[in-house]
Amino acid sequence: MKETEIWELFDGIKEKFGLRVFGKGYMYRIIPDSIIFEGDEISDKQKQQGIKGKRTYVPYDKGDKEGNRWYLETPYLIDWSEDSVAFLSTDERARWQGYNFFFRNGFCWTNVLNPNSTYFKCRLKDTTVNDVGSMSLYDESGLGDKYFVLSLNSYLHFKVLREFFNNTVNIQMNDIRKLPIKIPSEKELKTFNKKFDECLAIKKEYFAGEIDRAEMNAQLRPIEAEIDEMVNKLYGIEAKEEIVLDELEEEVFITEETEEDED
Predict the structure, then answer these.
(1) How far apart are CA 123 and CA 203, in angstroms?
(2) How far is it, in rounded angstroms, from Cα 31 to Cα 222?
(3) If we measure between CA atoms, which residue out of 176, 54, 164 comes closest to residue 113?
(4) What distance in Å separates the CA atoms of residue 196 and residue 147, rounded to the nearest whole number?
(5) What percent of the residues of the chain are helix, what percent strand, and what percent coil, each to the nearest 5?
(6) CA neighbor of 132 nearest in space, from 57, 60, 63, 79
(7) 214 vs 197: CA distance, rounded Å
(8) CA-to-CA distance for 81 and 55, rounded, in angstroms?
(9) Strand partners, 78
(10) Do residues 111 and 172 make contact, with C-beta atoms less than 8 angstroms apart?
(11) Which residue, 64, 234, 232, is CA-closest to 159?
């Protein structure tokens, strides 16, 4: 069967028996490029009322359970046709909230961390529709999203949050708002943005399949350590605590057994 025929078949089953007929699993479609609408091309009217025509699927950010930092390609799409938007904006079961922030560049973070994490998992957010799992904020200061991502990904801000605001694994929007973000000079901002671009380039190489995860972590680790030093210097702090670096998707677990082995 063709992909479109499978769509029609499953849509008919869903319409007749309800969504629960598929159980607790997920139903995904493979969306061809010919019906994808680029999020940065959308008009204000299309944001509010949906898109006419065949190209109606737009990027959909559902969050990131794997904890990618700096950058993540958005693999999901959502139907943003006029009929779909009409349903999403009126159905009682749909969580139609925060729609004024759809299709805006910003930054987001993994809202549930591993208990042994020593860093935030913050990254850029592209022009997408946001799921509740994608906690997002938007720069209105003119500093740019890159600086906020870099600053939040530093050990200093994670330590401040843990010590003063929230020591749980759930990182909420108001927690991030409480963090003291220092405004750098123009020269400092350029230096920070350059470091961010280095991390971004490495992550894009990884997602393009040009390097594996081990190589990516090996390249990112010294840059992230340098960023920690730069942020500490910006705040006038001399770090004396040894930092255990996280690796992407490979959290550091320290147990009594491993501590004894190290001795």
Answers:
(1) 11
(2) 38
(3) 176
(4) 8
(5) 45, 10, 45
(6) 63
(7) 20
(8) 8
(9) 58
(10) yes
(11) 232
Cβ–Cβ < 8 Å for 153, 69: yes
Query: Which of 141, 67, 132 has its CA nearest to residue 101?
Result: 132
Residues 6+ apart with CB under 8 A from 254: 116, 244
Going residue by residue through the chain, which has 263 residues, state the pLDDT in tens, using 9 for 90 and above. 565 666 566 666 666 655 555 554 455 667 778 888 887 788 989 988 999 998 999 988 887 777 789 998 887 888 999 999 998 888 777 777 777 888 888 998 877 777 777 788 889 988 888 877 777 888 888 899 999 999 999 999 988 988 888 778 788 888 888 899 999 999 999 999 999 999 999 999 999 999 999 999 999 999 999 999 999 999 998 765 545 455 444 443 333 333 333 33
Distance CA 177, CA 172 (A): 9
Residue type at position 182: K
- What does each C-alpha distance from 166 to 156, 157, 180, 241, 251 come to in angstroms? 14, 12, 14, 20, 20
